[in-house]
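ok so i was messing around last nite and threw this chain in just to see what happens. nothing serious, just curious
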Amino acid sequence: MKSELFPPKGNLPIPEQTAPASSRPSPLRLLRKFYGALLGMIIALVAINYILILIVPNFRDILTFDDELFFRYKPLSKTKDYHTLLADHRSVSYEIGPFGERVDSPAAAERYHDPYILCLGDSTTFGHGADGNESYPYFLDQLVQPTATALNFGVSGYNTYQTCQYAKKLINEFHPKVAVLQFDYNDDDPVLPIQAPPDRAWPWRSRVGGMFRFLALESPAGRRLNDTTPNARLSFENLMQSMRGQDMGVVLIYETLPKSLQGLPLDELPRRYGLRTIAHEITYYRNPENRLKSSYHLNGRGAKELAGNVNRLIRENFPELFDPDLRLLKAQPDT
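result:
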């Protein structure tokens, strides 16, 4: 009787290790976890997207890709830039006119007339981080009107090669009396816009998608742009040669000459190319009151000071542009 009640220890049955029914994940619980993780990813992407909106300017709506220039501004387009909100406490607008130039209003082209002063360069000329009525070409236009028209053909991110190739095209179209060429160190750090083309669907159109597309798919284009750096000096010399014999003046402005143009004897350019060429070093960035807080670019005050000095250089060195009598005298053949 005792052995039946208390079987030997070695013969004890081992109970099956079964989990309680309540601890098994139900399909509904797994589905909830999946949707929770998916929702978390979407919220994270949206948050990163809006963070990028605050720190990366949106050029997607105003840029188009170009076979020769890599990218340029799309005529009659506009966009907003919010990356200035945190530091400068305001957003700015970028509006492009009918010829790819930056304008301060849609009606700006109605006041265009020759003689023209073409302003070319990178973000310093374009007026990155500032409104259209705060760029130096805008202030220059105010100073030379109604005698002449200054047009802003600066493109943010352009290097020497792109500026010179773009200048050749525009000079043939506008036949300006003065070309103001601004150079910087973009040769040493070529950039491409990271925004995806506007014909793509979300998430490619988002800032996150644009960043991924740039890193994954457009890096070869960035390398091709980098390959233009060795050709920058040659492109500049070809531009100077193409302007030889034309009735126009050239103003070269720079803060730091790119490596491709360092060592260039600026004072010998008039003799070498037969052009009236003036060089002017930009020193306005050295004053913090002339710079934006959001980026290393001129604010309205700095741009206005630069425009005043460029206007002075033009009037001192190309006086016939503003004096009809001198213009007529210069147009007469030598006897």
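not much to say yet. The two ends are 145 Å apart (CA to CA).
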